[in-house]
Design a protein that fits this description.
By secondary structure, the chain is α/β, with parallel strands linked by helices. The chain has four helices and seven strands. The two termini are about 35 Å apart. About 15% of the residues are buried. Keywords: Metal-binding, NAD, Phosphoprotein, Transferase, Zinc.
Length: about 180
């Protein structure tokens, strides 16, 4: 319900996103979203993009909320992977509750545990997301591309490193591991 690797400056227009290689929520909690870092452009406090358990839709977050709501309103299918849906159940706009039941998107859930939306699902699979998605991709005859974190790093996803001196040794270690891994492939 958000992304623990993204923090944003909500003072910049448009909002400035920072994608990190570490969990930005270390210092955040229910109704406390400031991460302790600042925007390199305007100096404002950065905040996480998480809807914490117990919060309900009062924030302009999770990230890209308006687009998610618009996409849900146009969807004919909703696929929920690995979520308890305990937080998202409180957002009726995502479930198109204003539409008659026959016009709502079909809901498919893959999760190891019960969710509050199980009874609404067209199909509920109790399983591991990776296993289910591998079976689905095999059935569709599609290959899952290998994830290459060095591509993200080379495109500046983890910028600006200089804003986080206490993280620099960790980031240097990460970059050396990525470089070593890509050289051996």
């Amino acid at each position: 319900h958000g992304n623990m690797y993204i923090e944003v400056c909500t003072s910049c227009i448009p909002n400035r996103e920072y994608v990190r290689v570490f969990d930005v929520t270390e210092r955040t909690a229910l109704h406390r979203h400031q991460t302790g870092r600042t925007c390199h452009k305007c100096g404002s406090q950065l905040r996480d993009t998480i809807v914490h358990f117990g919060e309900r839709g009062t924030l302009g977050q999770p990230l890209n909320w308006e687009a998610a709501t618009e996409a849900a309103s146009k969807a004919d299918t909703i696929l929920c992977l690995g979520s308890s849906l305990k937080v998202l159940k409180k957002y009726p706009c995502l479930w198109c509750m204003t539409k008659p039941p026959s016009r709502r998107p079909k809901l498919y859930i893959v999760n190891l545990q019960w969710t509050p939306k199980d009874d609404w699902a067209a199909l509920k699979l109790h399983g591991k997301c990776d296993d289910v998605m591998q079976l689905l991709m095999d059935e569709l005859g599609l290959e899952i591309p290998l994830y290459n974190s060095s591509e993200k790093a080379s495109k500046g996803w983890y910028w600006p490193v200089s804003c986080h001196p206490r993280r620099l040794p960790l980031l240097q270690l990460f970059c050396s591991l990525v470089t070593a891994t890509t050289k051996t492939q």
